[in-house]
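Please fill in the sequence for the structure shown.

STRUCTURE ENCODING:
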């Protein structure tokens, strides 16, 4: 069957000609600032063959174009850089506090940040003169309903004297049962402890009504210098230093969660 002949009386719509190359490139985004900056960086790198100092400049310019074009790249590097700076600051601060408190190789100090979804804590800093306790990775996260961390976050502080806790060196099974029954920590997690602590002091750090972290001092010994720890942490100078670290803590926990 032959196709229907066109009606010459119908309105005529001419075919729009293709735009010139500059216009086509503009529509494709080739003339956007990020792409032009990347191109400038590439040209500078090429020119560095004759002027070596242009190599670094070209790389920086190209990277700037990449960041402008892909905001996620900047967010990644921002998180990474701020998280690394935050981790260093947290470790430095904990090491100074450790020394100020006169803690020993049987002791350790750690800092945890709460996360709302899911409800858990992430460790963002740790220090001990005992390399084994300091290097221990432990669990990546800590549920809010377990241990002294959760209790301190709930009521403000938590103190456990070693005399109340079974000695794991003498009766490890009694120690496991105590941790499971008293602090809701699964037996499998207790058996995996690198540091089998007996005495604890945990304190929630807060600004105004907002609790933003929990500081935990622990020891394998029966006693800690509880009064000295309380007095020092409550000192205005230490409150100020931890408060200055507060804004970096979310970057650290976010980086740890994303494996950065």
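FILLED IN BY: designer on duty
SEQUENCE:
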């Amino acid at each position: 069957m032959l196709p229907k002949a066109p009606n010459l009386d119908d309105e005529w719509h001419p075919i729009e000609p293709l735009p010139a190359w500059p216009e086509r490139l503009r529509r494709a985004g080739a003339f956007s600032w990020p792409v032009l900056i990347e191109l400038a960086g590439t040209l500078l790198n090429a020119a560095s063959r004759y002027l070596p100092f242009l190599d670094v400049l070209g790389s920086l310019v190209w990277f700037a174009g990449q960041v402008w074009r892909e905001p996620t790249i900047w967010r990644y590097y921002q998180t990474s850089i701020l998280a690394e700076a935050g981790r260093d600051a947290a470790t430095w601060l904990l090491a100074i506090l450790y020394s100020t408190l006169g803690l020993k190789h049987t002791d350790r100090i750690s800092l945890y940040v709460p996360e709302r979804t899911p409800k858990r804590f992430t460790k963002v800093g740790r220090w001990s003169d005992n390399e084994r306790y300091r290097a221990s990775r432990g669990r990546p996260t800590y549920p809010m309903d377990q241990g002294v961390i959760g209790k301190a976050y709930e009521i403000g502080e938590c103190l456990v004297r070693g005399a109340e806790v079974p000695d794991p060196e003498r009766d490890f099974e009694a120690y496991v049962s105590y941790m499971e029954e008293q602090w809701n920590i699964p037996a499998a997690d207790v058996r995996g402890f690198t540091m089998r602590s007996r005495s604890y002091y945990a304190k929630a750090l807060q600004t105004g009504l907002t609790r933003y972290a929990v500081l935990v001092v622990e020891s394998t010994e029966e006693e800690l210098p509880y009064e000295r720890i309380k007095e020092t942490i409550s000192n205005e100078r230490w409150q100020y230093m931890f408060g200055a670290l507060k804004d970096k803590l979310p970057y650290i926990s976010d980086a740890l969660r994303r494996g950065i």
